[in-house]
User: What shape does this take?
Amino acid sequence: MKYKIIGGTATALVLLAVFIISLLLPEDNGHRYVEHRDAPQKAPCTTHEADTFCTHLPIVSVNTDGIEIPGRAILDAEGYVTGYTMAENGAETVSATVSVIGQEEQRNHLTDSATFTAAAEIRVRGHSSRRFEKANYFIRFLNPDGTNAPQEFLGMEAHHEWALHGPFLDKTLIRNYMWYNISGEIMDYSPNVRFLELLVNGEYRGVYLATETVTAGKEGARLNLQVNKKDNTFSGYALRLDWGESLDKAIHPFTNYTMRANTQHELVYPGTQNATPQLREEIKNEFSLFEKSLYSYDFNHADHGYTKYIDIDSFVDYFLINELTCNYDAGSLSTYIYKEVDGRYKMCVWDFNSACDAYQEQAIPTDEFRLQNGLWFKMLFMDSGFTDRVIERYYELRKTYFSEEYLFGFMDDSVDYLGDAIDRNNEKWGYTYGSDYDLLHPQDRNPRSYDEAVTQMKTFLTRRLSFMDENIETLRHYSAESKTKKYSEVSD
Ligand SMILES: [Zn+2]
Assistant: This one.
């Protein structure tokens, strides 16, 4: 028995040593598949004619038997969106077959046989992008009886819901790819993504990015959210702040009825099928507890304040990533917050199309911070403890993921990886570089070529980082005590 105990002690010591070493290593959230680093290299084809469609990316074909995919913006005479197109039968989606030619080792051709085929329903997704010629799509894989049919897709964990994002406003094609991947390295979760080239009913549509939606996955593959259907209690959920178009998804927690939020809280998970009125009420009440504590005089109190409800690191990183990229829909639109099983509230990044100087209406000034005025963050920044962590984390990230070396290297490598797919995308959409198709205002912000688009993003990042280096400490102003009203003074 003696050496058993010794053995046990030795094992414990080894485990302890491993644990201590793991604390010293940089944060590791497990291996994330970053395509330009992890995809196998493919040798160029030498056997066919130069004009054969030949790509190292997977080819995804969506076939609806020629039926137009609904969900496009309907515009009035002034160009305002008045609604979205519907299928002939009034449905939001149409049936489709989704097939993939995705060979591991070799380049892909239209004549190669499909490596994946599945039945799905499809519609156009997004908000402002629904008016663009190059549409974004939502697909749901289906069984013949209409129930969800989770499928592993382009090497990502099985699920029934996917977004196919077609970069259009983002002329570099890499904004979402880059920031989802970098966020995924920094934060606990960010949607996994894979590049592809898309055909819809046989017509080439350019370079797309298959993207996980922010929702529950099997065994925590995406987010570990589960509904206990048996007794109708819940253990996890995801909310999104958005325009409030999905009235059936709306819940109205504290900041909604106190009018602090100017956008609507939508329940993303559980979906409308599983979200019973009772469950929605419970989620609303629980989320309101957090918001009430945050917007209270006791907001930074150890027992009664916000700290027991949220994963602070997640809010810190969300703030820094969206500030670095000047991604200013974040915090009010397409803004995801979730609570995993036994977890605290965390944020999830979404949509960097308008980030890094691609905001349409105007150039976003690079010399100011904004998200500290947003919902939740306005209160968080009143807590000097939170602000300290933001500043500390910025300096830490600046040496790694926020260094010019890392960021520009990431961009160059992603562009190299896309390679001739960029040319094919340009053949289809290159006319949008013309001055009669300028999406950004004022006009001189529009890049005239792919290379200019990449340079524009680098120039932006250099300016932004330089501003943040010089001014990150000024965020402390938001935590300063008021001379007339001691907001954060709490007596036990
Ligand atoms: Zn080939």
